[in-house]
Amino acid sequence: MNNKGALKGIIIIFVALAVLVVLSFVPWNSLTNNVLKKFSLISDLLPQQEQFITHEELDPGLAALDSIVAEKDTIVEQHTVGNMVQASGIAVNIPDVDGVAPTNDEGVVLIEDYSEGGTNMARMREGLAGTSNRPFRIAIIGDSYIEGDIFSQDVRALLQDTYGGCGVGYMAAFSQFPGFRQSVRQSGDGWREVEIRHMRTNDYRILSGHYYVGSSGASALYKGSSRPEHVSTWETSSLIFIAPQSGTINISASDGYTEQHSVTASPAVQAITVPRATSSFGFNSDIDSLIVLGTWLQSYTGVQLDCMSLRGNSGISHRILNADVISQMRQYIDYDIIILEFGINALTSEQSDYSSYAYVMTKVVGTIRACYPNSVIMIMGIGDRGQKQGTEVGSMCTAPAMVKAQRELARSTGALFWDTRAAMGGKDAVVDWHNRGLVNADYIHLNHKGGRELAKLFVNAINASIK
Predict the structure, then answer these.
(1) Which of 61, 107, 139, 393 minimizes the number of CB atoms within 10 Å of its CB?
(2) How far apart are CA 235 and CA 222, in angstroms?
(3) Which residue, 418, 442, 440, is CA-closest to 101?
(4) Which listed CATH number (1.20.120.1760, 3.20.20.480, 1.10.150.120, 3.40.50.1110) goes with 52-164+303-467?
């Protein structure tokens, strides 16, 4: 090769390297909605920052956090606008000192009760003691941490082992990923989701955070599963809906059982209940725009646990709920305990003060409490979350700040609190859980095996705390 050719080759190499260096500084994550990942050619040559750096998915609704906080009061009140209820918030003063999760002699991380006189825990104790005569209903509302009934399916099974009960409880009309959930086999067609983060104020803003609108001919089918325990069959099935038009709903159950129901158009909540032991439940309808608020597969006594998850949800949209619709639904389904599993989608490595988020969540607690006055509220702290620093992974450095804010949220609202992260092992617990095959490769989400492990810790906490 002559000198001219060699020089040309060197120029091409340098140009290519220059282009790659420039491209490595482009924020590909945000520009492509995380389809392409940000990369750096020189990251291993530079000293690492103390801050962990990874892509973080945040609830878009948090963009309105400042405007919500600007309305804050220091007294809890319920404001009714039309049929909506929104509680005002409580000023949250997060102490500088980290809270320490209480444990018993066996090292079980206990549930903290911030109600006056410990009445929350007493109500839980009394409710579980009476499950031979009535159902003890629990709802867990949360984000992708419990998606697919992970964690909640094993809490349900363990509690039903001790206190009785069967069935998975709440089911949405449709799932885009039905195979992911192990506790039920679900299928259906003809449904459109309406989700709380995109609802208008006059929509059906209910505890689950979403409902489904069916076209004429829409159908849904639920079949029992062999695992975990107690979900292969159940004793009664209820479909709760609103019918904007008159028409017919056809019901099916196992052993060829069918029913046909003529439905009259009404803005009121209606229910069809089939008091029949079964291993399947299905329905279809010729009512266009039928609004299905949920289906419940359950028993007459024992523990009933509903899992209501929305991927990417921070929880703040629940500060406004439809009190009228919920009041009508409570004729059929009410709760003894409502557990709020949120926070992961409000957590970022760049933020160490979550008092604004905690303040808005006091509105959420107040609103839910106004809609479900018979329910005890529990705040479930975030699990440990990992981030990469160089070639190593450790706990996100701001995770303790979120836990601190959530504990103060429980204290300010007189709720229960369980420190999930402490129960997992505290700092860098997520690394250990990942190494044990309990957490996915994102160092955030539990897999089914990890859900079972966390469920054991949680149920141990309940049993130790109600003694």
Answers:
(1) 107
(2) 14
(3) 418
(4) 3.40.50.1110
Question: Where are the strands (E) in 342-467, listed by range?
Answer: 376-380, 386-389, 392-395, 416-418
**Distance between CA atoms of residues 388 and 53, nearest Å:** 6
Could you tell me which residues come within 8 angstroms of residue 416 by beta carbon, excluding any fewer than 6 positions away?
Answer: 111, 112, 113, 114, 115, 120, 121, 124, 376, 377, 378, 379, 410
How far apart, in whole angstroms, are the C-alpha atoms of residue 430 and residue 166? 32
Q: 166-300 domain in CATH 1.10.3210.10?
A: no
pLDDT in single tens digits along all 467 residues of the chain? 556 666 776 777 777 766 666 666 665 444 443 334 444 544 443 443 333 334 557 888 888 888 888 775 544 455 555 688 888 888 787 777 677 899 999 999 999 999 999 999 999 999 999 999 999 999 999 999 999 999 999 999 999 999 999 999 999 999 998 889 999 999 999 999 999 999 987 789 999 999 999 999 999 999 999 999 999 999 999 999 999 999 999 999 999 999 999 999 999 999 999 999 999 999 999 999 999 999 999 999 999 999 999 999 999 999 999 999 999 999 999 999 999 999 999 999 989 999 999 999 999 999 999 999 999 999 999 999 999 877 889 999 999 999 999 999 999 999 999 999 999 999 999 999 999 999 999 999 999 999 999 999 999 999 999 98
Read off the tokens for 30.
């945000």
Task: State the Cα–Cα distance between residues 248 and 408, nearest whole angstrom.
Answer: 50
Please list, in sequence order, all residues whose beta carbon lies within 8 angstroms of the beta carbon of residue 96, skipping any fewer than 6 positions away: none
Q: Kindly write down the DSSP assignment for every residue of 115-178, as one continuous string.
A: SGGGHHHHHHHHHHHTTTTSEEEEEEEESGGGGGGTTHHHHHHHHHHHH---S-EEE-S--S-G
Burial 352-391 (b: 16+ CB within 10 A, else e): eebbbbbbbbbbbbbbbbbbbeebbbbbbbbbbbbbebee
Query: Would you tell me how many other CB atoms lie within 10 Å of the CB of residue 68?
Result: 18
What is the C-alpha to C-alpha distance for residues 281 and 188, in angstroms, rounded to an integer? 12
- Within 10 Å of residue 437's Cβ, how many Cβ atoms? 11
**Residue 177 contacts residue 150 (beta carbons within 8 Å):** no
- Find the largest Cα–Cα distance for the chain: 94
Q: Write down the domain spans for the chain.
A: 1-46, 52-164+303-467, 166-300
